[in-house]
Amino acid sequence: MQFRQIPPPQYLRDYIRFFWVLESNDKDVAAATFRTIADGCPGLIFQHRDHGILFQNDKQLPGTILYGQATRHAALRIDGRFDTIGIFFYPHALKSIFGLNADELTDTCLDLDGIPASRGFQLSAQLTDISAPEARIDILCSFLLAQLTKYHQQSDKAMHHALDRIRQTNGNISVKALREELQLSERSFERKFKQHVGITPKLFARIAQFQASMQLIRQSDYNKLSDIAFENEYADQSHFIRAFKEFAGASPFQFMKKSEELIENLSILTK
Predict the structure, then answer these.
(1) Domain residues of the chain, as ranges?
(2) What is the dihedral of CA 152, 202, 162, 240, to 10 degrees?
(3) Which SUPFAM superfamilies does the UniProt record give (predicted)?
C-alpha cells in the first residue's frame, strides 16, 4: 500500500488542506476497512471503479463522492485494489466552491457527477481516463478553480472570522463571545454558521477541541490521559474519553491499539 499527501497549489490553499493518494499494486488484496473520525472538514473522494469498490455500511458508493461534515466516526471498506485520490477541504469549502448550503451534506455524501456544478465537466470520466495522480490533481484543480469563479461570492467574512477564532482557541471559546464579536443574534449566527460549515458553532468547537487532543496523541506529547484532558480544558478525564468515543468510535487506548493512522483522521483498522 502506498500513501502520499500532496499540498494544494497556492491559489487553492485557502480552500484545500491537502490532496491525498492511496494506491495498491497488490492484486491479492480482498478488502480493507478504514476508520474516519470527525475532523470538522468536508472532502472529496475519487475511486477508480475498475480497480476497487468503496462501501459504507454495505452500501456501494459512487465513483466520485463529495461529502460533508461528519459529526461521528464511520467505517469505509474498499473491495479490490486501491486507486483512490481525495481532498481534505477547509470547513467553508462546500459553500465557497460549490455554492451549497453545507448542512445539506452533514453526515452524508452525494455523487459529484449528479450536481449541476460538475455537469459538462465530465469529472469522473476525465479522472478515470488517466492514471498518474499528479495529472488527476491537475484536473481536480482546474475543476475547482472553475467552480470558484462561479461561487466565490458565497464566502462570508464573519463566518471565516468565527472559524479562525475557534481554531485558534482549539474550540475553547464560548459561542456567546463569538456572537458578541460579530454582533449577531444567536439565531442568525447559528443559521449562517450551519449554512457555511454544516453544523452548529458549539458542535464545531467540540470537534476542534477533540482534534486538538488528537494532535497531542499523534505527537505522544503527554504522560497520561489526564494531561490531555487538562491541556484541552475538558472538565476531567472521563469527559475527554466520552468525547473521544463519540468522535473516534473508540477510547483513546483502543484507538491507538487497533488503528494505524495513514493520514490525519483516516486510519486503517488492524485486527
Answers:
(1) 2-152, 157-250
(2) -110
(3) Homeodomain-like
